[in-house]
Design a protein that fits this description.
The chain is built from five helices and two strands. The chain is mainly alpha-helical and 117 residues long. 15% of the residues are buried.
Amino acid sequence: MTTQPELFPAKAPAVDVEDVEFLCAVLHGAGWQTADAIACRPAWQSFFHRGGADRRIRAIASASKGRILSYPGSPGYRLTSEATIEEIQTATNKLRHQANEMTRRAMEVDRVYHKKI
């Protein structure tokens, strides 16, 4: 039997302050950590009893209000307070570039849409 993939992916996992504090504690003094390395830690496995670590870690980093550093092409996740100035500048430059690219694409879609009206 073949299952059909969902048309729309599930929403990002809900994140609370406790999740952010936990991931910050895991990252403290650890340098760059991949999602796989974080998910393999016994502390992570006892804190989160279910799968989907990649999405959960990404959601926690996003909700961290800048405390957790990650960006497209980054070596993983790291506390911003422990990152070098160069790492922070790389992150902000890549995130701004990604935002500009997404805005450009949205404008292109809008232009096509408005031609249909």
